[in-house]
Specification:
The protein has ten helices and no strands. It is mostly helical.
Amino acid sequence: MNKKDPFIDGFLNGKPDIFNKLYTESFPAVQRYIVSRGGSKATAEDIFHNALVILFVKLKNEELQIQSFKNYLFTVCKNLWRRECSQNRVTNLPSTPLIDEAVDLAKFSIEQKQWDLYQEKLKELSENCRKLLLLSFKKITYKEIVKVFNYASETVARQRVFKCKSRLTKLIKKDSRYLRLKP
């Protein structure tokens, strides 16, 4: 974490002007994202508050390299929303166990660290590999990838995607954090 960043220092020290800026500049994007995906404004507020708490705890307890506080906050919100959506919630059933909030936050923290490791290692790949993987992860067809990269065939595109995924996997598995974060 960059201790000299006045925005992060203000956030950690609870300065009202920083929180006002977060709510006026960052919350609307989070709200749009969640509402456009079937959520409500109240859910967006809950997720935004949880993200602020998580980010506060991470900044207090860990050394983070954050290039953009607002982008990082938005990513945490997106990940919380994804978790919210992926949980199948059944209401009014007494046999449904309640998840302890501390356990839930611990799981999120691990997932966030896994995401951070993935993002860090993705940046270590060549620009060409990153672009290729991002297209592949977006489910762009090999036919389209051939056009974008001017490859000779779909087979070449498949091979390149495979090689880039293999490089990324090796980079992640070589990192000492991998075994601690492995599910």
